[in-house]
Queue: 2 jobs
Job 1
Amino acid sequence: MSAAPTSSRRLPAPDFAAWLGVAPFFVFAAMFLIAPTAWLLVGAFQDHEGVFTLGNIVRLGQPSIRLSYWLSLEVSAASAILGALIGLALALAALRGGLPSWLRPTLTTFSGVASNFAGVPLAFAFMATLGRLGLVTVLLRNVGIDLYAHGFNILTFWGLTITYLYFQIPLMVLVVTPAIDGLKSEWAEAAEMLGANSWQYWRLIGLPILWPSIIGAALLLFANAFGAIATAYALTGSSFNIAPILLYAQIRGDVLHDPNLGYALALGMLAITGASNLAYLALRARSDRWLR
Amino acid sequence: MKRGHPGAWLAVALGGLYFLAPLVATFEFSLRMRRGVYSFDAYRVVFASGNFQASFLYSTVVALVTIVVAALIVVPTAYFVQLRLPRLRGIVEFITLLPLVIPAIVLVFGFIRLYGSSSVLPLTATSLGADALLTFGYVGLGLPYMYRSVDSGLRAIDVRTLTEAAESQGAGAVTILFQVILPNIRSAILSGAFLTFAIVIGEFTFASLLDRPAFGPYLQLIGASRAYEPAALAVMAFALTWACLGLMQLVGGAPAAGARR
């Protein structure tokens, strides 16, 4: 009874100093993250005179734009699925494969570097590797395998996918490692005592626990590839018209001859990366329950 | 399982091949400039180029300013959220994740539209304004990493006791932040700083679309016009990334989960 007045007396005292301390952060976020994005969203729903319209969204369906979205989806999906599977295999091998213990920190450190080695220099590296005069191309030709005679080209879908894998696989390793570490050894021991072999352990225990992490990580990889432009642009110029490259050309020189359609193009990209990031966060929340 | 699963060996061997081949190939290619003999000519040409020096210097300065601005924004925010405004944690963390969700090309498009020459705040109209815009864009790119690094640094020290001790000596909030908290989370800030540097130094999208004379657009230009110099530059960029991440681990940061460009 006597406690009530005390608490109501000290309740509403806004902490001005603290609010002043966080103010720059919110001003920054409003000016350089939220407002620019919101501005584009508004423009995507306006015509030339600023009147509300859904026409820009509808016109995203025109063949050239649809094709560029489709190419982006394909490259992102291929590099995300392959990156997730290969990254998972590598992480499992290094963490659970009974290999020498120095492999684990080596893989983690290398993954930290390689997942940040993207953009223009990565494109250069793959040109020097799998380009027409690249080392691997030349070596393979010397043993009788002519990649380019078989239709391979670094400037195409598979060339770009193989290049993207260079940062996708390491990202997968980094994201999935905590999940694999979360598999408690007691579970493996219990399964073994009950007579399960290692195939049964992975099929009935390991993978059912890991799958939300794996799918979530694949979605993260997908969004990661979908927004990327520098690598593709440096590798292929504007000959490989994925959505970010089309948007780049639109910003540079209004190739669509319609600024508002450009905003809609950006909105479409944001919707796709936003949706896959949200799904990733939801799945991570689910898998976090096992990691406690 | 003790001596190593054969499948695990195979996976690591194939992975090693895929990851090492481009490094070896790029290095080998970078040595081929002089006909018939390996030489470091490509590196010599690159280092002697005025455009290389100017753009690298420009990007280094932008990166350093970015790091200072990011630290000035992030440290007080993380500190006050942890100590006095815990109910803001959710929204602050959400905002720090935004740069990972919004593709850089979309964000810079918004910059150009919002701060273009015909807008209320025409930052792109002057060279200094565009530099500032580029820097703020980079602060955004580094924000997720800087915030996570500083936040976990603050968790590792006893912020409340340090603050109370300083207050009992009569220190104000600014003094506490700069003279008590900052020195105690120096390694966390440095670790965020090295990662930010690695992300920003060769960044292409922002710099190119804001027409800045930065290292990323320079790299792209060389890639489109030269044969051997790009390989030499790729080797240098890889070494630089490695150095940044190595320094980051040295100062005791958590391993970084992927920058996105």
Job 2
Amino acid sequence: MKKRSFKGGAHPPAKKGLTAKSPIAAMPLPEEVILPLSQHIGAPAKPLVKPKDRVKTGQKIAEAGGFVSVPLHSSISGTVKEIGEFPHPTLGLSLAIKVEGDGGDEWDEEVKERANYSGLTPQELREIIKEAGIAGMGGAAFPTHVKLSPPQEKPIDTFILNGAECEPWFTADQRLMLENGEGILEGMRLIMKVLGCQKGYIGIETNKGEAIKNLQKLASPYGYEVIPLKVKYPQGGEKQLIKAITGREVPLGGLPMDVGCVVHNVGTAYAVYEAVAKGKPLIERVVTVTGNPVKNPQNLRTRLGTPFAKLLEECGGTMAEVGKLINGGPMMGIAVETNGVPVIKGTSGVLVLSPKEARYRKPRPCIYCGRCIDACPMGLMPNVIGNLVEKEKFAEAKEYGVFDCIECGSCSFVCPAKRNLVHLFKYAKAKLAQMRES
Amino acid sequence: MDSPLILSSSPHIRDDVSISKIMWTVNIALLPALLGSLWFFGLRALWLEVVGILAAVGTEGLLQKLMKRPLTIYDGSAVITGLLLSFNLPAGVPLWMPAVGSVIAIAIGKQVFGGLGFNPLNPALLGRAFLMASWPVHMTTDWIPTRYGTMNGIDTVTRATPLKVYQLARDYLSAHQGVSPEQLAQAKATLASLPHAYRNLFCGNVSGSLGEISFFLLFVGAFLLFIKGYIGWRIPFSFIGTVALGAWIFGGSQGLFTGDPLFHILAGGLALGAFFMATDMVTSPVTPKGKLLFGFGCGLITILIRLVGGYPEGVSYSILLMNLVVPLLDRYTKPRRLGEMRG
């Protein structure tokens, strides 16, 4: 198999074995859900309901707060308990709608299958996707309809479906490609119809051989090409994926559309299919719940808003003490403060690390080994930027390209001095943004 | 949950490669050469090496205690410095020399700047340069023959290292007067006989500094570091390549392109320098292009000293000089960013 890739990267242990063979199981309906108004990049959604209102599954309960925003739907049927601040997996505390379930799962009348959707125009499809509240499900949660609205002067000729799933431990995308391949490809076709582009690629790392075979079989009638990718982190990074598959480089500070590309995650494509064909808004997703302390790690199809504690319970709880609970993978995920945080649209997995795995490693001064430079998939000099940030030399850090950093974590991962490079870069970005405002 | 969850930035997992793992692996990679020094020079070599290591580690510990800095004597880096310092000494030097050299290497070469990571110069080479300046007679004449061979691997008459023999021969050839026809003929014969030394040079059966003599044993260690990814190919390749090319073009007695590149690769401290000292992470460039240029500069200065300089060998000074331009090399050889348009 010919394998394509990008320059740089790291090889964190894949650890996918714990859940790779476990079929997606349905998570029982949660008794209550916490639905944050910010589950996506952009303006928070605006509530359409008030406490004590009856809501049904799939009912729109908050509308988009702007163009770069998405609406929110109730993921269960029941009563709105409260609209207030709740723990959020990536934002600390954030405004959310808490719905207490009635146990019935009564669906909203608006949710109807479309017997025939082939006549829909790109504009109509885009509107359906927007109204379904779909945001990128690979983790970043960028509103999907925005990525599907490139300006006139940026013609798109290539669509790439991202099935790389390069984060260690996680297998949700892998299982989805095995079990719902038809839906994914149909979603891909719909996305390409919206974009009006001809060339369709599906990028999958070669450690998911069955998924490659399955999608190859299903994709041939569509004329899409499955590209086996080298197993290397961060193969699923948007810019790395585009480089590996098309050889094109997204210009610094630019977007994929600058080189005629749009990339969406396989989960997003599946959500698009469900929204168009079944009329279903985004109210559930597949989440890998895994980690060594987890008794029975598995892939769960769960309603949005389900607290992490419930997922862990469903997986038999944890055998050992929990050191870190992470929304997302070990390389880019965010450590959460409490197991009460809910699953949101971008939660590709929940990872539990033992206290030993999550222990603090005291950083030492840089020894200039250059391993971070070899690993950086953006061609930056992480050691230099890190040293500059430590000396609060933010302007110089910017010159060295701190804003080009995609925070993939490869540099920190390989650093023998255990320097917290990504932490320093996030700090510098925040500081620089602050300086610009004042 | 019983205990508070740990909150810290991604990534949440780390590679198991640490500073001490790298440093101790370098020490292991130096073991073949250490055993070689025992084999060729006897137990005396071991005492010199032990003294060098103890002095280095002791100095590091003492200074860190005095300055109330975290103790790092177990990370293996001071051991490397002590070992490399003793590797750079003639086998016949008195025992106090590695001690003095190591104290200077660690104190002036490393701790003064803030310890590992902050030193601009290779500490062991700085220690050696100090000894060379202070006790030049010891450093240039305390050679002893190996237990199984000759001083230079060519003949038994001359009391000199291979590179010294080479230098004398070249001096005769380039001198315009005062050289008898016999001396001239002998010098030519010496240069012509260099290939006879290949085998001894490759194994280490020649006189020289403790750890530099065996190309083979040093290569074995370097190969381990290469496999582990702790050294790259760029610095050794461009360093050795430049020396070989320079030796071939300018090093012969019959005009251009008549030199003996293999002799220059195998003789002296090139293997030790190119594999273990020019590749020191702290004092070499971090960028791929910078590494190539650094090795090229080291090679250029080495061959310049060997062919026209006053010393027979120039490896250690070449590395020290190139250490000084590392920040500059790094600055002007930044890698190209993904999506960066240049020119």
